[in-house]
Protein backbone atom coordinates (compact mmCIF):
# COMPACT_ATOMS: atom_id res chain seq x y z
CA UNK A 1 0.00 0.00 0.00
CA UNK A 2 1.44 3.37 -0.93
CA UNK A 3 2.08 6.06 1.66
CA UNK A 4 -0.66 8.10 0.01
CA UNK A 5 -3.24 5.35 0.47
CA UNK A 6 -2.12 4.83 4.06
CA UNK A 7 -2.54 8.55 4.69
CA UNK A 8 -5.99 8.52 3.11
CA UNK A 9 -7.02 5.56 5.23
CA UNK A 10 -5.78 7.36 8.33
CA UNK A 11 -7.67 10.51 7.34
CA UNK A 12 -10.84 8.51 6.85
CA UNK A 13 -10.43 6.76 10.19
CA UNK A 14 -9.99 10.09 11.93
CA UNK A 15 -12.86 11.70 10.01
CA UNK A 16 -10.50 14.28 8.54
CA UNK A 17 -9.93 15.52 5.03
CA UNK A 18 -11.04 18.54 3.07
CA UNK A 19 -14.78 18.80 2.89
CA UNK A 20 -15.57 16.30 5.62
CA UNK A 21 -15.60 18.82 8.44
CA UNK A 22 -17.62 21.28 6.38
CA UNK A 23 -20.22 18.64 5.52
CA UNK A 24 -20.41 17.50 9.12
CA UNK A 25 -20.84 21.08 10.32
CA UNK A 26 -23.47 21.78 7.65
CA UNK A 27 -25.48 18.78 8.78
CA UNK A 28 -25.22 19.80 12.46
CA UNK A 29 -26.10 23.39 11.73
CA UNK A 30 -29.11 22.49 9.59
CA UNK A 31 -27.20 23.50 6.49
CA UNK A 32 -27.59 21.92 3.13
CA UNK A 33 -26.08 18.50 2.68
CA UNK A 34 -24.65 17.34 -0.61
CA UNK A 35 -25.97 13.82 -0.32
CA UNK A 36 -28.84 12.03 1.30
CA UNK A 37 -30.49 9.77 -1.17
CA UNK A 38 -31.66 9.74 -4.72
CA UNK A 39 -35.01 11.46 -4.33
CA UNK A 40 -35.98 14.73 -5.95
CA UNK A 41 -36.20 16.23 -2.46
CA UNK A 42 -32.62 15.24 -1.70
CA UNK A 43 -31.57 16.60 -5.09
CA UNK A 44 -33.29 19.93 -4.38
CA UNK A 45 -31.77 20.14 -0.90
CA UNK A 46 -28.33 19.47 -2.31
CA UNK A 47 -28.38 21.77 -5.33
CA UNK A 48 -30.91 24.59 -4.80
CA UNK A 49 -28.20 26.98 -3.61
CA UNK A 50 -30.36 30.11 -3.55
CA UNK A 51 -33.41 28.41 -2.03
CA UNK A 52 -35.83 29.49 -4.76
CA UNK A 53 -37.32 26.01 -5.21
CA UNK A 54 -35.58 25.53 -8.58
CA UNK A 55 -32.22 24.13 -9.62
CA UNK A 56 -30.66 25.76 -12.64
CA UNK A 57 -28.00 24.05 -14.69
CA UNK A 58 -25.46 26.54 -13.28
CA UNK A 59 -26.48 25.72 -9.70
CA UNK A 60 -26.26 22.03 -10.46
CA UNK A 61 -22.81 22.29 -12.03
CA UNK A 62 -21.54 24.50 -9.18
CA UNK A 63 -22.83 22.01 -6.62
CA UNK A 64 -21.25 19.10 -8.46
CA UNK A 65 -17.92 20.94 -8.68
CA UNK A 66 -18.01 21.67 -4.95
CA UNK A 67 -18.82 18.02 -4.22
CA UNK A 68 -16.00 16.85 -6.50
CA UNK A 69 -13.55 18.96 -4.51
CA UNK A 70 -14.59 17.15 -1.31
CA UNK A 71 -13.45 13.89 -2.91
CA UNK A 72 -10.10 15.33 -4.07
CA UNK A 73 -8.41 14.93 -0.69
CA UNK A 74 -4.90 15.65 -1.96
CA UNK A 75 -6.02 18.62 -4.07
CA UNK A 76 -4.44 17.45 -7.32
CA UNK A 77 -7.59 17.96 -9.41
CA UNK A 78 -8.18 14.21 -9.83
CA UNK A 79 -10.09 11.77 -7.65
CA UNK A 80 -8.48 8.40 -7.09
CA UNK A 81 -10.53 5.47 -5.91
CA UNK A 82 -8.90 5.64 -2.47
CA UNK A 83 -9.85 9.33 -2.13
CA UNK A 84 -13.45 8.68 -3.15
CA UNK A 85 -13.81 5.80 -0.70
CA UNK A 86 -12.01 7.73 2.08
CA UNK A 87 -14.34 10.71 1.72
CA UNK A 88 -17.41 8.49 1.95
CA UNK A 89 -15.93 6.52 4.84
CA UNK A 90 -15.32 9.74 6.76
CA UNK A 91 -18.84 10.98 6.08
CA UNK A 92 -20.34 7.64 7.09
CA UNK A 93 -18.23 7.50 10.25
CA UNK A 94 -19.41 11.00 11.20
CA UNK A 95 -23.03 10.00 10.58
CA UNK A 96 -22.62 6.86 12.68
CA UNK A 97 -20.96 8.87 15.47
CA UNK A 98 -23.85 11.37 15.53
CA UNK A 99 -26.40 8.55 15.59
CA UNK A 100 -24.52 6.76 18.34
CA UNK A 101 -24.29 9.91 20.46
CA UNK A 102 -28.04 10.50 20.10
CA UNK A 103 -28.81 6.91 21.08
CA UNK A 104 -26.51 7.04 24.12
CA UNK A 105 -28.16 10.30 25.23
CA UNK A 106 -31.56 8.64 24.86
CA UNK A 107 -30.32 5.67 26.91
CA UNK A 108 -29.65 8.02 29.83
CA UNK A 109 -33.16 9.44 29.46
CA UNK A 110 -34.69 5.94 29.45
CA UNK A 111 -32.66 4.99 32.52
CA UNK A 112 -33.95 8.10 34.28
CA UNK A 113 -37.51 6.95 33.57
CA UNK A 114 -36.80 3.40 34.78
CA UNK A 115 -35.04 4.51 37.98
CA UNK A 116 -38.25 5.80 39.55
CA UNK A 117 -36.76 6.53 42.99
CA UNK A 118 -33.81 8.37 41.36
CA UNK A 119 -31.19 6.57 43.47
CA UNK A 120 -29.14 5.79 40.34
CA UNK A 121 -29.72 2.08 40.88
CA UNK A 122 -32.49 0.39 38.91
CA UNK A 123 -34.01 -2.41 40.91
CA UNK A 124 -35.72 -5.43 39.45
CA UNK A 125 -39.01 -4.04 40.80
CA UNK A 126 -38.45 -0.77 38.89
CA UNK A 127 -37.61 -2.72 35.75
CA UNK A 128 -40.76 -4.84 36.15
CA UNK A 129 -42.84 -1.69 36.67
CA UNK A 130 -41.84 -0.46 33.24
CA UNK A 131 -42.49 -3.88 31.72
CA UNK A 132 -45.92 -4.01 33.31
CA UNK A 133 -46.85 -0.71 31.67
CA UNK A 134 -45.65 -2.06 28.33
CA UNK A 135 -47.63 -5.27 28.73
CA UNK A 136 -50.81 -3.45 29.79
CA UNK A 137 -50.63 -1.14 26.77
CA UNK A 138 -50.22 -4.07 24.38
CA UNK A 139 -52.87 -6.21 26.13
CA UNK A 140 -55.49 -3.73 24.99
CA UNK A 141 -58.38 -6.18 25.41
CA UNK A 142 -57.21 -6.86 28.99
CA UNK A 143 -57.42 -10.66 28.78
CA UNK A 144 -53.93 -11.17 30.29
CA UNK A 145 -52.41 -12.27 26.97
CA UNK A 146 -50.78 -10.26 24.20
CA UNK A 147 -51.77 -11.79 20.90
CA UNK A 148 -53.26 -11.02 17.49
CA UNK A 149 -56.63 -10.18 19.09
CA UNK A 150 -55.12 -7.08 20.72
CA UNK A 151 -55.53 -4.13 18.37
CA UNK A 152 -52.78 -2.09 20.06
CA UNK A 153 -49.75 -1.87 17.82
CA UNK A 154 -47.41 0.19 20.02
CA UNK A 155 -46.68 0.50 23.72
From TrEMBL:
Q: Which UniProt keywords apply?
A: Signal
Source organism, top-level taxon:
Bacteria
Location of the EF-hand domain: 45-62, 70-84
Q: Report whether Signal shows up as a keyword of the record.
A: yes
Q: Which InterPro entries match?
A: EF-hand-dom_pair (IPR011992), EF_Hand_1_Ca_BS (IPR018247), EF_hand_dom (IPR002048)
Q: Does the keyword Isomerase apply?
A: no
Which residues belong to the signal peptide in this entry? 1-22
Pfam families, per the entry = EF-hand_5 (PF13202)
What protein am I looking at? EF-hand domain-containing protein
Amino acid sequence: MTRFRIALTALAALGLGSGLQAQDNAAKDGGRATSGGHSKGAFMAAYDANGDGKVSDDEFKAGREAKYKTFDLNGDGKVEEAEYVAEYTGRLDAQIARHRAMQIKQTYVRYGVLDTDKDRNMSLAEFHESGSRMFKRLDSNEDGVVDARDPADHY
